[in-house]
């Protein structure tokens, strides 16, 4: 519950290149921080500039001062070497650096318990290699600007309508079916278009005056699809994004015209009764698709997601569904609820013919029958006269307003006025409802529609690929010479063996644990954790007092103690037990004083600071943010939260999970791998690092993004992590101080182990393929520079772990899917839907009990440890079994899992700081400190506000 319960959820020092050739020795090492490229033949060639007898192992890369992994030649196998990144040539900016992917280190994977046939949601795309796509830059501006000397940015909806009007005015020269528009500055065409300036007269709505726009078209490029073959055949290692972009726009053109676009997902404009989840909200299935380059060629990857949308219904009907007991005849009673529910929503009007969308800015102060306004003659002949709104609607639109005793909606922008009676307004389609607004019933219904079994998802995807509104519908893609196969790609996957685990027996010996064959779970019956930390000083803060779900402490405490002791965690009676209501979480002074008092009580009774505070709450509440920030930043107490309903039930599984978290947060070890990890076995210390960035919601345009870096501090167990959190620029994905954050973690590792790690393996979360260069050049480069300044040179591997992709895996044989129909844990796919030249693979490491499993997609961007594919896959799969909070493998490696949680914890801190800033009515010293800090530093994202108390910062507080 700790996270999910309260969620609203330079230079890279390029040096030697290595290729494999026969009978060639090593040359002098040219840079301490070398990056290795290896072919698939015998012998080695290292550090040579230019071709050699063995091949271009160290050939100089184009536009780069570093070395570029070439192709091994002359030796057996003659395979491709790894590409790597060097520093730019003098005076060359980083953006022009030559990069290349890490090549596959061997011919293929061999480890497998068994193989199975899968279907994937990749649909092969055939294209005419002779086709040319013409790219035109398009610029649209008003002929007469609304404000002299100032150009107003036009919204995408208007730009699209202007483009359509241009085509309808001259369909011969501007054929709509032969063009695709990205909605902003690019039009792609299958035929030649005229260039120059063109006047388009456009009226947006019947009551608006006709406006004239000047559309300027210029030919920017002619894109030849035959260049795709260079990449697909391996001739070129540079991803042809200049071709993929227009193809992507072409594939999105048809759904853009016929469906509602929401952040790259396309939803039906019609809501269906079967999709309703209550209160005017519908669960809409949105099509998501993306073009991917793989070893089988170009493919369209298509999936869907389910999001809550407001139903397109009349505003008054909407209010009746949203507000319990709403009565339009007793409107005044519900005024505040009406304003809260309607403000900010978009509506269409029904009293005139227009598809224009208006945003509700508020309600009128007067009721409809009392509203009047000055009506001006547009020709200026008749002087202005006051007219009643009800009379105006009858004279202008022949509409008799029925609900005269309620306010109107104000649809005007800023301070403008545009009063429209509610009965003539309909909630506009395509508006997403925030999940925070869903009640428990709606949330449950949404999950039921989202988390469908694999067979149901597969059938829905097959229906969507056939849909005439989808990416292959209509004639647009065909006009560009593109055809999409409607059959899913089939692949042969391997299931790799799970690792053997280590637990402890009651007599203190270690025991080997073999996991369950189907689910890969293990149980803790008559087993101890590997290292149970003794807990002598802990407290219980019961925030459920005076609530209907009040905690039964006499039942909960002894059961928790018994379960902890059964797991080998010696837990004494609590030194402090406090009761309070949830209101305490919003009393900054009171909460801080209570936490300090609990700590003082621990020092008096237990002669030391509190080791952990168990906080029991009756419900999920935003006040949780305050609890975490105050306890972890101000007071220095590690907390563990749970719900009173679960605590009162106190079933064995709940108590075991709670005990595992408590032990991990106190520095204990729950489970370890029996054998050391591949390739990094040996005497040298190894550190695993995870990095992620949490971004604010799309509606927030000012809050900082939160970066988190976590790392292991124990080897060889490698299951205890610490974290560092910092704010950075709004929506910046690059971790700005990555080198400094990692160096701080290395220093902490050295303090705890009296040595620095010799090997570092970094897992980066949350970046897409077009950001891989940024990870290597900016983040890794920053890290290398920091290390070099200290004359510290560990070997480094960088792996990106992606979960936000569209690929799904479906067993072809029902028997292979087990009881849930999902692929079994340990399923690996590294052929056909992957790129042959890259070290990437899909790994489904967890048991998919609910819905359809999504595999993690791992990319090795940088590798100084020379992992084989088998070793990389075994490494990632084994790590997934070491998560501290459960007895099953998780869906992505723990460094990424924990980095995500730590970044989210930073988001909670920010929200707590903002809450204090908005309600800084307290006058205590602590409150004044926080208030001053927030008012002066939040805008500049002060790192000190996120720096944790020394008692907390080196614990796994983020679990």
Task: Describe the 3D structure.
The protein is α+β, with helices and mostly antiparallel strands and 959 residues long. It folds into four domains: 127-310 and 442-490, no CATH class; 315-428, paz domain (Beta Complex); 532-668, Rossmann fold; 672-915 and 940-945, Nucleotidyltransferase, domain 5, CATH 3.30.420.10. Helix content is 25%, strand content 23%. The strands form nine sheets. An eleven-stranded mixed beta sheet has the order 34-33-32-35-36-40-39-38-24-3-37, with helices on both faces. A hairpin with an 8-residue loop joins β8 and β9. α11 (588-606) packs across α12 (623-635) and α12 (623-635) packs across α18. The longest helix has 25 residues, at 894-918. It is globular and about 100 Å long. The chain starts with 17 loop residues before the first strand and ends in a 22-residue tail after the last helix. Residues 1-99 and 921-940 have low confidence and may be disordered.
